[in-house]
């Protein structure tokens, strides 16, 4: 009897050991591919980029790339980098300062199921469904000379300039910013609307019984309850500040009329015509790496500080 019990215990221990070994093999097999991918496409690329920032094109260690970036940024005869940074910040400001708050209010009114809310939902989501090239073509024709906007302005004694808004450095970027404001609602409305859908009906019904008005409801009830979603969107927007770029390649394939952004400037250094006119870009990967490193050093502390501030806002459990 004791032998049978001992044999059964040994078999049980062996089965458990075999199960754990199989689980370990499974986990290793599942994690191997993403680990290799991370090592090659993130760690290796970023380490290489970091090292290139301190190397010249001949491989010598130097701060030449940082000096070249500073000279490009402070060029008294017109800084391409400076203009690119300003335009990039403008696109980010429209995204976080215009599209984001409007997305909150649009999502709120759709959440409250106002009259014809299904129609408005489709209208606000259309820019995210229709391909960008079609929207850009429609928008370009609308604001061009003899377009719909020109007809409206002529009715009030004005007109669109004969060269158009997209061919003038004073108006080209602003015209594209208006397009970004028009088409930038879709994804945020979906995320914020989904967060609002989780708000308990009992909370809203109690507020309604207490005579809570819509403005107070959204500011004091809805926003605190969906704050985790809002804070995540804001942080993601901050992390993408220097990569913010409007659809300038659809409007101006060569970034003319002062519409260039930081992302497009980096693209031109590597693949484009280059800041100094060389075919195929400047091929100065060190300059591009130094530029990315400078903005990373500047902006990471800001993101961490904003994240710390947001974590000070107490999360509401429901």
Give the helices and strands as they follow along the chain. HHHHHHHHHHHHHH
What structural class do the secondary elements suggest?
mainly alpha
Count helical runs: 14
**Shape field:** flat
What is the overall pLDDT average?
A: 82
- Helicity level: over 70%
Kindly state the number of beta strands: 0
Sheet of most strands:
none
The low-confidence runs, each spanning 5 or more residues with pLDDT under 50, are 274-279
- The termini sit apart by 57 Å
Radius of gyration over C-alpha positions, nearest whole angstrom: 27 Å
What percentage of the residues does DSSP assign to strands (E)? under 5%
Descriptive account of the structure:
The structure is a single chain. The termini are far apart. Helices cover 70% and strands 0% of the residues. With 318 residues, the chain is mostly helical. α3 crosses α13.
Please outline what is shown here.
It is built from 14 helices and no strands.
Task: Provide keyphrases for this structure.
318 residues, mainly alpha
Lay out the secondary structure.
Elements: H1 2-52, H2 64-73, H3 80-111, H4 117-129, H5 132-143, H6 148-155, H7 172-183, H8 186-197, H9 201-209, H10 214-225, H11 227-239, H12 248-251, H13 262-270, H14 285-311
Helix pairs in contact: 1-14, 2-14, 3-7, 3-8, 3-13, 11-14
């Amino acid at each position: 009897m004791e032998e049978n019990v001992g044999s059964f215990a040994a078999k049980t221990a062996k089965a458990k050991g075999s199960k754990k070994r199989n689980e370990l093999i499974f986990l290793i097999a599942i994690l191997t591919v993403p680990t290799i991918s991370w090592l090659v496409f993130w760690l290796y690329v970023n380490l290489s980029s970091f090292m290139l920032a301190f190397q010249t094109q001949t491989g010598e260690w130097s701060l030449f790339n940082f000096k070249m970036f500073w000279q490009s940024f402070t060029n008294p005869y017109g800084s391409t980098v400076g203009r690119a940074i300003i335009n990039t910040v403008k696109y980010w400001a429209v995204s976080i300062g215009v599209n984001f708050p409007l997305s909150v209010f649009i999502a709120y009114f759709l959440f409250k199921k106002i009259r014809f809310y299904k129609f408005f939902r489709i209208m606000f989501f259309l820019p995210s469904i229709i391909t960008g090239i079609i929207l850009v073509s429609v928008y370009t024709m609308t604001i061009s000379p003899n377009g719909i906007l020109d007809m409206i302005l002529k009715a009030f004694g004005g007109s669109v300039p004969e060269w158009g808004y997209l061919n003038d450095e004073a108006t080209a970027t602003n015209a594209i910013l208006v397009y970004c404001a028009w088409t930038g609602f879709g994804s945020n409305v979906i995320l914020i609307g989904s967060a609002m859908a989780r708000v308990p009906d009992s909370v809203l019904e109690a507020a309604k019984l207490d005579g809570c008005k819509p403005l107070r409801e959204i500011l004091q009830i809805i926003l605190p309850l969906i704050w985790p979603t809002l804070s995540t969107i804001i942080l993601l927007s901050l992390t993408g500040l220097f990569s913010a770029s409007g659809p300038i390649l659809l409007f101006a394939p060569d970034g003319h009329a002062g519409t260039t952004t930081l992302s497009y400037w980096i693209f031109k250094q590597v693949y484009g015509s280059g800041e100094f006119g060389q075919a195929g870009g400047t091929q100065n990967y060190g300059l591009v790496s130094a530029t990315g490193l400078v903005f990373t050093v500047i902006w990471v502390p800001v993101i961490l500080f904003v994240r710390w501030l947001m974590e000070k806002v107490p999360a509401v459990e429901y």
